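During the first year of the project, the team set up a workflow for recording each protein of interest as an amino acid sequence followed immediately by a discrete structure-token representation. This format lets reviewers and collaborators read both layers of information side by side without switching files. As required by the reporting guidelines, we include two representative entries from the current panel. The first entry is reproduced here exactly as it appears in our internal archive.
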Amino acid sequence: MGLIKEWREWRDFQRIQEFRESGMDELLLQAGLTSAVLTKEEALSIPSVGTCVDLISGIIATLPIKLFKEGSGKVEELEEDKRVILLNDETQDTLDGFQFKKALVTDYLLEGAGYAYINRRRNDVESLHYVENRNVSVLVGVDPIFKSYDISVNGVNYREFEFIKIARNSKDGVTGKGIIKEHNKILSVAYNTLDFEDSLVKTGGNKKGFLKSLGRLSKDAIAELKTAWNNLYKNNTENIVVLNNGLDFKEASSTSVEMQLNENKKTNSSEINKLFKVPDSILDGSASEAVHGNFIKNCILPIIRAIETALNKDLLLPSEKEQSFYLLLI
């Protein structure tokens, strides 16, 4: 008897393991409880994320980029340089200068790096082409001291000097860590809250629950019940289900999340604003001059400096750097 008991325990354990491996991921996916990283589109569908990204990227995209040359004790602005025209007005791509900068900042904030291909003819820059972060693969060398990397787009390898690279929280100068990966948990909570609200609207507010039956139902009865129940949770259709004798519906109790949905939304929204360093008062229009100043200092200026550094590194020739050329967002 002891061997049989041990064998049964081992068999039950194996079944549990098989269930965990084969079915748990699917169940979690259906419940919306997976730990998968949100996509950029999913993150932007969260109102607070979309608002903060649009605000920050819009402010920076409106700033003109100018080229200066310093020498003989004076600073000269080079207004006719083609790179200035490409950056501010016509990129010679499908995006104009405003859209180009806005797209780079959006990828920088959410995905950790913004990329643009520099189309050169010898030493002249002919056009600038924004490349979405998801389409870029970075092949980093193994040497932790003398770092090197190649950039791949659609299976084609490019050298590092062929791309503008604006990286956030980077350890190698080309890849970075965006807010989506850094704070995926709170963003997932906010996104799942939206999904939960959406499901409430689609079901007309009908609560979920379970049915109890005193006896075994026939296949026809089960099919009829499923059809009626499906109609109950659809809008603009019949919303009455007649339960035959022996059937009883037990409504699921409200969870703490359901009871405090609005309060949780406000809290999550405020926390997400903090991730972007955007005060709530900036968004509702009640910010003082001091708050505006801190917002520019803590949120906008670091991104501006990151862009300026990347542009000076990738767009200027070595000879121009020696002659004190530099690009600034002003």
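The second entry, processed by the same pipeline in the following quarter, appears below.
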Amino acid sequence: MNDERRRRELADFLRTRRSRLSPQEAGLPVETARRRTPGLRREEVATLSGISLPWYTALEQGRDIQVSEQVLESLVRTLQLSHDERNHLFVLANCSVVPYVTVGESNSPALQQILDRMGSYPAYVIDRHWNVTAWNKMTSTLCGDFHQIAEIERNILWRVFMMKDTEARIVNWENVATMLLAHFRSRYALYMNDSWYREFVDKLCEQSEEFRVWWRRHDVSGTSKGEKVIHHPKAGLLSFRYHSFAVPESGDLVMRVYTPIENTGTDEQLKDLIGESRLA
């Protein structure tokens, strides 16, 4: 079942990459007649990649066939895939690289101490499902106390797509949401054996139109950094860059740290918030 799901993901990915590439971008002659197929046709991808049409069609139909690295590289060139998209293609095409679900993720006291020593920088730890498992005081000041909310509301994607107060606070919400979703889609391919991912995606597709539409685009990204602008009711606009760091020897835990963007006044505003919280 898991292998079948992986092949369906591969088929969907190839279709979405093919449909976005015009014949002109692929170096094909301009046609005078109107094309009924958006992007490239299957036969055009096959020809440009030096493979047979039946074989490529079998790939897009999710059939159980073996794919060589040479063929994959040909598809990368034909479909003009980015570095992140190439990695995603190789993961989906080779089930042997898809890891099994690991167990034993836990936050050590030392990890919480590191978070607490971040000072005015918001920082938290997420597990492989993107649930926040540890955080510092500044994160609570900006996002609320994670101890007081339902478990699903600790999930980063759920908060961005389903919690309207969170969406309203993020000034560049669409940019943040699409970037996070593309990165999550890359992670999703790595954990095809974990049923949680399929169930979670189904739930978000049912309840969020934006998530459903963007998920169908099958955009992927290996980038775990970006910028976020937050409107805080007391501090005003806060501009951050965020970076994610793998936590060694802790399963799939990742620490995400938000640092103020220079010359935006955010650093001083955060220090003022800390001062207010101490007086409260």
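For the second entry, the following points were noted during internal review. The first strand starts at residue 123 and ends at 126. The mean pLDDT is 89. Both points are flagged for discussion at the upcoming steering committee meeting.
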